[in-house]
Amino acid sequence: LAEGGLQSPGSCCCLPCRFPRLQVFCRVRPLVDGGLSEHIQLSTNDNKMLALAKTEESHVGRAGDTQKSYNFSFDRVFGPKASQQEVFDEISLLVQSALDGYNVCCFAYGQTGSGKTFTMEGDDTEETMGVIPRAVQQMFKTAKRLEEQGWQFTFTASFVEIYNETLRDLLYTGKANKRPEHEIRKLANNDVTVTNLTYQKVCSEDQVLNLIALAKQNRSTAQTNLNDRSSRSHSVFQLAIEGGNAGRDINCKSTLCLVDLAGSERMLKSQSQGERFKEMTAINSSLSNLGIVITALANKENYIPYRNSKLTYLLQGCLGGNSKTLMFVNISPEPDSFGETLNSLRFASKVSGFLVIKLFVLYCKTGGGGADF
Ligand SMILES: Nc1ncnc2c1ncn2[C@@H]1O[C@H](COP(=O)(O)OP(=O)(O)OP(=O)(O)O)[C@@H](O)[C@H]1O
C-alpha cells in the first residue's frame, strides 16, 4: 500500500520481505520523574540494543564489587522519551498490511505497571493515544482513500477479556446478571469465532473510540479495590476486515488483533495464595503457552498447541498461516524491578531468537542471499 497499490491476499510483492513474520520491539517506561535508571543502558547510536547492568557486591569489601551486564538486541528499542507517535510510526506499515489481506497480531508483554496499556490504548489526548486508536484511525483513513480505486471495506470490531481462562465480552451492554457465557469455536472454514460475543460493525473512527471507552468501563466495573483485575487479564481487541474490488474481481479478508497481555510477574515475587495463586497460575500457563506457540510457528512444526490456552485458541487465526506478529516487551525502569525486567527481556529474546536462528539457517541454505522469510 505504501507503494500505492492494494494486492490480493498474500500476493503483495513488497510487504513479505520488508516484515519478518515476527518482530520484537522493546519499550522502556520513564521513571515517575521522567528519567531513566542507571541500570538500563541504551546505546546512543544503535536503536536496537539495550543492556541491563547490575553491580554484584563482593564478600571482601566494596573494592571487589563487579559489574554484570546483560546485553539484548531487538528489532527496535524505544527509550523513555519515545512518544506514542514515534512508536506507532514504526508499526504503521505492519498495521497497514492488514488491509492487504494479512492477519496482523500485536502484543504488549511485560510486568504489571510496565506500560502495556499505555502502549496499546494510551490516554485520551491526540498526543498520548496508543496503538489501538492510532491503528483504527489509519485503517479508516486508508480505506477511504482506496474507495477511489474501487475498494469497499467492512470492519467488524470485538473486544474480549480473558481472566482465569474465562472469556468476558468487553462490549456487553446488557444487564450484569444476564451476562452470557462464551465458548471459542473453530468453524469449518477455519475461522475462529466466540459464541454470544458482540461483533460490532464499525465504519468510523469515533465509533471505535466509543467501543474502546465501553470496554474500559466494562473492565473497571469488574474490578474492586482488592482485585486489580485488568493487570491479571488479557484483553484482546480484534478488527475483522473484509475488502473487495468488484472492478478487479479481488476479495480479501483479514484480522487486526491488538492484545494487552496480563502482567507477566513471576509467582514467587507476588507470594500468591488462594484466588491470586489461581490467577497467577492461569497467567503463567497462558503466557508460556503463547511462547511455545510462537516458537512452534517459527520452527514450522507440524503440531501447534493452540488449544492449550484460551488466548492462543482465540488468536489461532491471527498467529498462524498468513500472518505477521509483533511483540512489544514493556519494561519498568525502577531498580527494584531488575529481576522482572531481566525475565521479560529473556522471554522476548527467546521468542525473537528463534527467528534469528531461522533466518541464519535460511541465509546459509540460500548461499547468503535471497532468503525471504
Ligand atoms: N511511555 C510512557 N510515558 C509516560 N507514562 C507512561 C508510559 N508508559 C506507562 N506510563 C504510565 O505508567 C503507568 C503504568 O502504565 P500501564 O498502566 O500502561 O502499565 P501496564 O503494564 O498496562 O500495567 P497493568 O499490567 O497493571 O495493566 C500509567 O500511569 C501510565 O500512564
TrEMBL record:
UniProt entry tagged with the keyword Transmembrane: no
Keywords: ATP-binding, Coiled coil, Cytoplasm, Cytoskeleton, Microtubule, Motor protein, Nucleotide-binding
Domain Kinesin motor: 21-354
Domain of life the protein comes from: Eukaryota
GO cellular component entries: microtubule
Location(s) in or outside the cell: Cytoplasm, Cytoskeleton
GO biological process terms on file: microtubule-based movement
Matches recorded under Pfam families: Kinesin
SMART domains, per database record: KISc
Binding site for ATP: G110, Q111, T112, G113, S114, G115, K116, T117
Keyword Cytoplasm in record: yes
GO MF terms held by the record: ATP binding; microtubule binding; microtubule motor activity
Family the entry assigns: Belongs to the TRAFAC class myosin-kinesin ATPase superfamily. Kinesin family. KIN-14 subfamily.
Protein name: Kinesin-like protein
